[in-house]
Amino acid sequence: MTIVKKLYIKTFGCQMNEYDSKKMIDVLHAAQGMEQTNNPDEADVILFNTCSVRERAQERVFHDLGRIRHLKDKNPNVLIGVGGCVASQEGAAIVERAPFVDLVFGPQTLHRLPQLIETCRATKQPQIDISFPEIEKFDYLPQSLVNQKDRSRGASASVSIMEGCSKYCSFCVVPYTRGEEVSRPFSHVLAEIAGLANQGVKEVILLGQNVNAYRGAMTSKEYSETADLALLLEYINKISEIERIRYTTSHPREFTVRLIESYSRLSKLANHVHLPVQSGSDRILAAMKRGYTTLEYKSIVHKLRAIRPNISITSDFIIGFPGETEIDFLDTIRLIEEINFDESYSFIYSPRPGTPAAELPDNTPYKIKQERLQYVQEKIQQQANTFSQGMVGTVQRVLIEGASKKDNSEVCGRTDNNRTVNFAANLDATDHFIEVKIIAALAHSLRGEVV
Ligand code: SAM
Ligand code: F3S
Question: Cα(172) to centroid of ligand 2, in Å?
Fold first, then answer.
């Protein structure tokens, strides 16, 4: 009888990391038949897929590593691995700080996990591989399979189309931990999506640090040598089984007229764009090296709304960047009101070692930064509430994702503008699009009834 090895993965941070964690599960299942477990006590391999975008996320990794250390003392055959951005940044220093760690691997070497595990077991030595072997990872990953056990978002699948970032915003660690922007070839992305469509996927979410920096090599001579995101979207729009297309995250600098015009031609494009602005002050945007002004940002949104008046625009904000004055902050508030941002993310600036902004003088007391953050979050929440209230009485097309989290007798799904709706319906309708009338707006979700 073969004993199935168990894998426990803890994911920190963003959607890209969640995607990478799924790939780790796929790759270890394909190579070693491993099955995922939610219980670290019964795992043979424990992996932490980490994030270092903000300091707190980084510190939590070491804290949580300390909490599972006893499992290794109990069973020395358990392997503990650290992947993701903290691994990229700290490398061998992780094993120095936490000597019970056996594997350290980066976002671009996760496909090498089976060999790293084998070598570690054979040599009894920690294995460290945090190199950036370009886009090799995708050539070694098994075909994407819709996870039948994990019914959450079963008909919705994420597909990474590019990796890394070459923008080097002065505050951000990503270009150093994930490497430069590299796009997957056009035909590879389309083949993966066609494969997912054959397995019943109806919605794709294209992923990348800057998805609209996508420049995928094309093999057909009929076309230019590389495809941009607008062309990729056009092709995906033609796959009949795919009914809705999302992408995240896009960068204002790469938001081309071609991409904006896609919204008039491509009916499957969701009515939502996540477009991080970071600040409403041109002075701070320049210090952040974002490469656009607020006027340029507003112009993109204006053009999008000329095509899709109801499009939901969400964003990321950094509050308390070094040198942010009260006036800069008020500029951010003004922009939030002018654009009428929907649900967004906002964070207090976190100095990241090795980034240029970490060297800048920062005289704003932390308490002021916290007050500013709270003000921004309340403002955005008010706007999001008004947006939700405006949806009451409308009929929305919802992709049912499964049982509702709060009440198992109901189902939940997502609207085109990415809001969660809970309503009474048969669980068998999971993975189907359905017309739902919105009957109430709550703080973080909507209530509806099937039309
Ligand atoms: N590519 C995206 C863009 O165009 O801005 C951002 C990707 S970044 C990994 C995700 C978000 O983390 C950023 O939009 C930013 O708001 C936040 N972030 C990055 N570095 C940060 C830092 N040092 N302090 C606080 N927030 C940070
Ligand atoms: Fe980071 Fe700026 Fe790239 S926020 S991920 S360096 S676009």
Answer: 6
